[in-house]
Amino acid sequence: MKSILSFIVVAFLFLNTNYTIAQQTIEVINKNVNISKGDQPAYIVEIPQGDFDDVLSNWTKLIRQNTKEKVVQEGHEIQITGTQINEIYPDPINIYSAIINSDSSLKLVAVFEIDSVFFNYEKNSTVENEKIHSQLQLFMKNFAVEEYENAVEEELEAEEKKLKELNKDLDGLTKENENLHKSVKENEQDIKNSEDAIKSYELDNERKLGEINSKKEAIASLSAQPELQDQAKDQLKDLEKEKKNISNKLEKEQKNIVKYQSNITEINRNIERNLELQEIKLQEINTQEDIVQAVKLKLGGIR
After folding, report:
1. Which helix (H) or strand (E) holds 107?
2. pTM
3. Cβ proximity of 56 and 99 under 8 Å
4. Which residue in 153, 190, 242, 270 has the fewest CB atoms around it within 10 Å?
5. How confident is the model at residue 226 (pLDDT cuts 50, 70, 90)?
6. Which of 150, 128, 110, 113 minimizes the C-alpha distance to 28?
7. C-beta separation of 282 from 3 below 8 A
8. How far is CA 132 from the centre of its chain?
């Protein structure tokens, strides 16, 4: 179940303009603007999330279709003369345009000169001009919709990449958790091995102590035979060295058990922290999945 935090974050994102899931309608408006040729009637369309360089490049390609004429930039104005755009008009036309940054969007402004006259359907509302006007609006809108869709598709790709990385992080945490549990089992096995070794060393130690006591009794009984007694004393020293070695091994295994138990305590703390991180990561994934879904809805709502 998603956490309250995830719900709040997603709710905020849905309210944020970048993640609005309502249908986004692109509209073309008409307004007079001042260009190098004076105050002229223009077609203006807003491109949400548009990248200036991408829009400039794509607009330049679009208005150069079916012509060898070059696009000329004078200041902010993008000009082309004698271009052939059949979906607008069968004969060559001139276009004077500009791309303007506006908060989180771009505005594309275009003035069209047709048959040596700046097109103004309001001044001369004929059937032919109404048709050209509709074609100009559609031309501008289609371009803006495509650019907006491109921007949202890039946004979606970026958000899906984030989601993929989050899932990768979760996989890493899951694998780490498995390794931590494996380490606990390894340390538990090491404890068992040490306990078995301690039992064996304790038996060895007990046997060696018996041998030492027997040797001491033998030494006492050989008081009348100094030479044999000296040999027995040397043997006793060897037995005591062997017992010391067994005692050292016994002590080492006892210390090892303390170390392994300490390792398990530390690993269990790491497991607990790992589970906390997994929970946090799951919340991030839930939130990111909602973001991805919101961007998909936004992409599908562009009209």
Report:
1. strand 105-114
2. 0.76
3. yes
4. 153
5. confident
6. 110
7. no
8. 47
